[in-house]
Specification:
The complex is a heterotrimer of chains A (502), B (143) and C (115). Chain A is an all-alpha fold. Chain A contains 21 helices and 2 strands. Chain A has one domain. In chain A, 77% of the residues lie in helices and 2% in strands. A two-stranded antiparallel ribbon of chain A has the order 1-2. In chain B, helix 1 runs antiparallel to helix 2 and helix 4 packs antiparallel against helix 5. A two-stranded antiparallel sheet of chain B has the order 1-2. Chain B has 5 helices and 2 strands; from the N terminus they run H-H-H-H-E-E-H. In chain B, a hairpin with a 3-residue loop joins strand 1 and strand 2. Chain B has one domain. In chain B, 71% of the residues lie in helices and 8% in strands. The longest helix of chain B has 28 residues. Chain C is mainly α and 115 residues long. Chain C has one domain: Helix Hairpins (Orthogonal Bundle). The longest helix of chain C has 32 residues. The relative contact order of chain C is 0.14. The chains are: A mainly alpha (502), B mainly alpha (143), C mainly alpha (115). The interface between A and C is large, with 42 and 41 residues. Chain C: It is found in: Cell membrane. Chain C: This is Cation:proton antiporter. Chain C: Its main location: membrane.
Amino acid sequence: MRPEIALPILIPLFFGALSLAVWRSRLAQRWLAVIGTGALLASGIWLLFATLNQGPLVTTLGDWQAPFGIVLVSDLLGAIMVLLAGLMAFSAAVYSLAAMGEGHERFGYYPLLHMLLAGVCGAFLTGDIFNLFVWFEVLLIASFALLILGGERAQMEGAIKYVTINLISSAVLLTAIGLVYGLVGSLNMADLAVKFADADAEHTGLITVIAMLFMISFGIKAAAFPLFFWLPASYHTPPVAVSALFAGLLTKVGVYALYRFFTLIFTQDAELIQTILIWGGTITMVVGVLGAAAHFEFRRILAFHSVSQIGYMILALGLMSPLAIAGGLIYTFHHSVVKTNLFFVSGVSYRLRGTHELKELGGLYRAAPWLSLLFLISALSLAGIPPLSGFFAKFVLVRGALDLQFWVVTGIALAVGLLTLFSMTKIWAEAFWKAAPENAPTPPPVEPGQPLYLMYLPIIGLAAIAVLMGIFGEAVFELAMLAAEQLEDSRIYIEAVLGENP
Amino acid sequence: MTSMPSLILSTAARVLLPLLVLFSIFLLLRGHDLPGGGFIGGLVGASGYTLYLFAFDSSAARAALRMDPRTMVGLGLVIATLSGVIGTFVRGEPFFTSQWWEVYVPIFGEMKLSSPLIFDLGVYMVVLGSVMTIVLTLAEAEE
Amino acid sequence: MEPLMAYVVGGLYAAAIYMMLRRSIVKLVIGLILLSNAANLLIFTAAGLVRGTPPLIAEGAQVPPPGVADPLPQALVLTAIVIAFGVLAFAVVLIHRAYEIVKADDLDQMKSTDT
């Protein structure tokens, strides 16, 4: 019995239910949010250490054995992603205490937050593809509701695109699951890996079709080129704590699913898949960063950078070497921390100045020097300046690409890093450095009981993590290498789920 | 709601509400081996309260429900989640493993209690609560 | 039976995509409904269609008789239908609210958050 595997799903479910039961009391919901996400973070740390010490952990639900029942599996990739979810959730919950208006909280923000986390953690831990679909839907429906909290015009327009494209993605995923079941009669990931590995040659074409369907579905969720248009159209519309959580977590679920499926299950037609992933990732990087360069709204720039950074993670998967995948994992973790933090900073700047438009912002360096420092740490880390977290993530990734002699791709990745720096200096120059413009809008009224320090605390914490990931780069790298080696050798996962001789 | 509620409907609803609630609990309890269960039971219970709402008004239905429907959804979810972890804490089995207890009740003889029943109770509350949330919201929007 | 179902599924996908390419949001939602139904039917068909053999184990036997229907895809489809129902209900409410705010049933009028 392994309680630690199911806890990251049960904790948010339980706290979500509890905060729904006390939905009249705003105070109780706020406390439950902090305690629940804190417990999730703690269980994530526990799960990571347990997985690190004992190898992949498996638990069956209801004691139905794999491959017949649903299993929860925690290998290092899953455990790291759960830890990331806990970290993002905890910082977003603390930030929400100060950033969420009473109207949003009354409309069920905290129960939805917990449900979203249950879906995210379930998707990271499940070992069954239909169950993965169910968790995707859980997190989607929670994210739909979070996205339209407040009900402004921009949110409605963004939500229609977000909902539509995600429903299409779900339908594609369901189609692929149906074809998989029709082909091999199993839904357990480890079992599928075994069955696809010894599938008949006549089925190779169909398996490739199924692999492409999964790639499109997860590519939409991860916001990869050319399927990313919903992200910049919607991510900047909701309250900033929601944007931050989405940018930090939701696209990562798609990235996680791509990593899981294309290292474990679909390994036959590797060359075609790798080529698509490498060039898809590269074009995603370029398009995202160019889109960001053209914008002058704080959160839109950040949203486009999310697309660009997703490209790096997909590129790392496409390269498929342990070193590159380790780089991709560090990148995923680093990007969540940093991008969430940048969204948090944009929330503070909105509170101080009442606008997200860079043209109307200004003088923040004089007004809030510490905020400027925190922004700079995150922004430089995003661009990959040593000794911050982004530098090591990019370094390992580029090193992996160079080892495989992908010169062009490496060059583009480095150039995109420079363009990222350009965008970040644009924000720095416009929002922080230049003097405040004459006709600046007035900051919004602040509700009582929402002290500014509660917004600073998570920003400081995440900035500290970005710095520490750089300083202790070696430890982070070793952990990522271990996870990458587990992904590379799919036998470890299969034996953990199905036993020694499947 | 109409300004003049029908006398027949309101008299019947007064009698039918307890009957339907009783029937829904009957469906909930027999649901493990026979047709029934928390989902259907919850729907039948909700239909009783909806009838009551048609006969009187939304505030009367709210009062008859005793508990706020949203609170009920939350409590139901809590109960359903907890039913899954009983076996884990008592016997160290995986989550959601069914637990069975045989209880001797005078007159009725031996009865089987189980964690699926507790789960079903949670489902019952979630279904009743969410249907009533929807119905009451619609009714209040119209009023 | 299978070829017929395959044509039905294919027709549903085609109709769904045609509807989703229209500018009207109502037609977009109709397209989404058709799409989710197409996927459900596809699961059902791909797993194999068998008539009149419910997966019941006779009294005293340990295994069901050969050639019974596979109950799992039915469970999958049921789950998928319930999920699709919930999500589509949300989508309908969303377009209703969006219509009230934007006052248009035209996707081309909803470009303010685009790039």
